[in-house]
Design brief:
It contains 2 helices and 6 strands. The chain is α+β, with helices and mostly antiparallel strands and 115 residues long. The protein has one domain. The relative contact order is 0.11.
Length: 115
Amino acid sequence: MASGWIYVTSGAPQGFILGPLLFLIYEADDSKMFGTMNNKSKHDSIQKVLDVLQTLVDIRQMEFNVSKCKVMHSGYHNKDYSYSMKGQMLQSTVTEKDLGVLITSYLKSGAQQHI
């Protein structure tokens, strides 16, 4: 037995073809990447992952807002390497707010009370 047709005025009907695409867009909107690095070859590996991500985004005809992409170097012995996307150097930050929680490069909680 087949269902009848119904006029939908809002929302997304079940089986909506754009559902998976909209999910991917939502996921890509707030992406984070973590990596452990203690030498130049690890740095090169992280840069290569950024390059692959950029290629995948280009294939899907999406775009990273590079001006909003940032790098946070964590730890006392971090070399503070620079990274780039689309030929632009990514801004380095020591403090970032994520889901309402302040994250610092040394994972200190004292700064949270000042926001």
